[in-house]
Amino acid sequence: MINLEEKGNGLFIVKIAMREVHTLDVPELKEKIQQAIVERSIKKMVIDLSEVKLITSTGIGIFLNINQLLKSQLKLACPNDEVKKVLELTKVTSVIKLYNSIDEAIAAF
Question: What H or E segment, with its residue span, contains residue 6?
Answer without folding.
Answer: strand 2-8
